[in-house]
Design brief:
Layout lengths: L18 E10 L6 E11 L4 E5 L6 H8 L8 E10 L2 E2 L5 H11 E4 L3 H4 L6 H13 L3 H14 L5 H4 L9 H13 L5 E5 L7 H18 L2 E6 L2 H7 L2 E6 L2 E7 H6 L4 H8 L4 H7 L41 E4 L2 E3 L14
Parallel strand pairs: 3-8, 3-9, 6-7, 7-8
Antiparallel strand pairs: 1-2, 1-4, 4-5, 9-10, 10-12, 11-12
Helix pairs in contact: 4-5, 5-7, 7-8
């Protein structure tokens, strides 16, 4: 199956990474003034790797993905600072027409809820074929035939029959597979998967993750995997960025992060993961993170996590901690990380 490649302006200072987000700041208009929802985020995605972005709802994960694709809700959402380099090209500043080419061919996205993302009055085969007609220049028959091939490739049984079905006639797992087919139809270099398994039962979830793993290997693409499920991250990702209240608070390869997280928020997320076998043996209670995510319109002074942090001290409210490198590929935003006991996933 052929891969389509786009063309767009060559950047003056290309990055070796596929994606390099530098000091990204995103704000939304509100009655009381603009609210910054992503504040100074920097991260990279290498070719062929899976980077997971995790955190509670409201941490800025999905907004980051929408900013990368220039799909922020309009007119309220806007990028107010930073760069989003894709193969060296700053997507935050190029023309909308050029962004559409990148968005349609080089970057694909699986949105959170397939039932609300798919058109209810158009067959699923036609929805895949539309992308191929617009971005790959295929004729109607050739595009529909390719759509059937993609339905087969994402393991939907009887793909020719399912191609003429409408979204409501498919199960949740099948709809998610259709979304994957649409996102991958043009052979993207980057796939953004925003909570792709949240609404699925654990069996279907495992199937979808295995499918994504296989397609990543076949296509050689990178994946930006957005989730709140650290259990999935442990099995699927290469590196992890933990976000809290719009900022990155820890970043590391998967194994070091789970073995030795240094940010108290990361430790708290790991302690909140249910572990059936260990709980049965020790009668250990599930540990919840106290309090709630702060209101982004009125963030606490200093470290945003300190009102909920069991390790906080008076100094934690004095200033926003620097994002320090503490090891190879390991960064943390905590002024007390040197003093705290390392608590891993166990």
């Amino acid at each position: 199956m052929s891969t389509v490649h786009s063309s767009y302006p060559i950047a003056s200072a290309p990055s070796s990474a596929l994606v390099a987000i530098e000091d990204l700041r995103v704000a939304f208009a509100a009655d009381a003034g603009a609210v910054t929802v992503v504040d100074g985020l920097s991260l990279t995605i290498e070719r062929g790797e899976t980077l997971a972005v995790v955190g509670e709802s409201g941490s800025g994960k999905s907004v980051t993905a929408l900013a990368l694709l220039r799909l922020l809700p309009q007119p309220s959402g806007r990028i107010i600072g930073g760069r989003i380099r894709f193969e060296g090209v700053d997507l935050a500043t190029i023309a909308e027409k050029a962004v559409r080419r990148v968005r349609g061919i080089d970057i694909g996205m699986i949105f959170q809820e397939p039932m609300s993302s798919l058109n209810p009055v158009v067959s699923v085969g036609e929805q895949i074929a539309e992308r191929l007609r617009v971005h790959a220049g295929l004729g109607r028959r050739a595009a529909f035939a390719r759509a059937v091939e993609w339905l087969d490739r994402v393991r939907i049984p009887e793909p020719a029959r399912r191609a003429i079905s409408f979204p409501h006639q498919l199960s949740g797992g099948m709809r998610q597979r259709v979304m994957i087919a649409i996102a991958l139809a043009c052979g993207p270099k980057l796939l953004i998967a925003d909570e792709p398994t949240t609404a699925l039962d654990v069996t279907i979830q495992a199937q979808i993750l295995e499918l994504l793993r296989q397609l990543r290997a076949e296509l050689g693409m990178a994946i930006l995997f957005i989730t709140h499920d650290l259990g999935v991250v442990a099995e699927f990702a290469d590196r992890v960025v933990v976000m809290y209240a719009g900022r990155a608070v820890e970043e590391a390869p998967v194994q070091p992060l789970f073995a030795a997280p240094r940010m108290p928020y990361t430790q708290a997320l790991l302690r909140s993961i249910p572990r059936v076998n260990r709980a049965a043996a020790t009668r250990e209670r599930l540990v919840a993170i106290r309090g709630n995510m702060p209101d982004l319109r009125d963030l606490p002074a200093g470290c945003s996590f300190h009102p909920r942090c069991t390790a906080s001290r008076a100094g934690c409210a004095m200033a926003v901690p620097a994002y320090e490198q503490i090891g190879t590929g390991h960064h943390v935003r905590c002024s007390r990380w040197r003093e705290l006991t390392v608590v891993g996933a166990g």
